[in-house]
Amino acid sequence: MRVVRAEYAGACYGVQRALDMAIEASEGGEGASTLGPLIHNPQVVADLAERGVHAVGGPEDVERGTVIIRSHGVTPAVRRSVEERGLPILDATCPHVARAQRAAADLARRCGRVVVVGEAGHPEVEGLVACAREAGGQVAVVAEPADLPDALEAPVGIVVQTTQTREALDAVTAALSARGIEPEVKNTICFATRQRQESAAALAGEVDALVVIGGRNSSNTTRLADICAAACPRTHHVESADEIDPAWFADCETVGVTAGASTPEDQIAAVVERLEAL
What is the radius of gyration, based on Cα positions, of the chain? Predict the structure, then answer.
């Protein structure tokens, strides 16, 4: 069985940057805490905990040491709370997420009404919503056109969760246009996310089975799995090599491997090694 890896797969710049910053903080000797999981990868979070970097619920749970702002970013109120406690801050917010936060605030000031295309409740989306509201905007979070409020009126600005698909953005934009509203769009989808989605889709059409690696709590990884499953029904989403079942690949000549942007290289290598050993 031949194992084929997607051209673009695994940890993106923002995730790797956050990991490097957290590991460096762990070597300081005073301990560090992340506000929520640094990234959506349970194995990485567990490894960081062993290094002394623990995920906490909020600033009130930190008594000493460095506070690391996770790659998804936090709301302005949470940041202020950390600053008020006088704790040292290490900002590991992905630069693309920070750009989306600035775009959300700018659209709120310019348009007054902001549509966030994304997953309600996701920490990145909560940050985007908070930034827009602090800038005086009315905000709606939508995953698809059906979620758009009926009473929405122009002017409207659109900002996008960085791990969303271009198709989701285009669908919402088209729905508003059909109502006679021409929104001001800030396409804040991360280029690395788009690369991984397109690469995974291309690979899914060429292999007999496909393995997607990454946290089940990772939006970008689960979206990759959905994209792959649409073209390759024998798609399997795993968090580690230990989950691989040889029975999945009966009669397979080729199996593809891809991974979400929150999946480090060592986890990908372990899965590839396991598949090649079958």
Answer: 20
DSSP string, 84-121: HTT--EEE---HHHHHHHHHHHHHHHHHSEEEEES-TT
Q: How many residues does the chain have?
A: 278
Question: Does the annotation count 124 as an active-site position?
Answer: yes
CB-based burial of residue 178 (10 Å sphere; 0-12 exposed, 13-18 middle, 19+ buried)? exposed
- Going residue by residue through the chain, which has 278 residues, state the pLDDT in tens, using 9 for 90 and above: 999 999 999 999 999 999 999 999 998 777 899 999 999 999 999 999 999 999 999 999 998 889 999 999 999 999 999 999 898 999 999 999 999 999 999 999 999 999 999 999 999 999 999 999 999 999 999 999 999 999 999 999 999 999 998 999 999 999 999 999 999 999 999 999 889 999 999 999 999 999 999 999 998 899 999 999 999 999 999 999 999 999 999 999 999 999 999 999 999 999 999 999 99
Q: Which residue(s) pair with 141 in the sheet?
A: 116
Active-site entry in 24, 84, 119, 124: 124
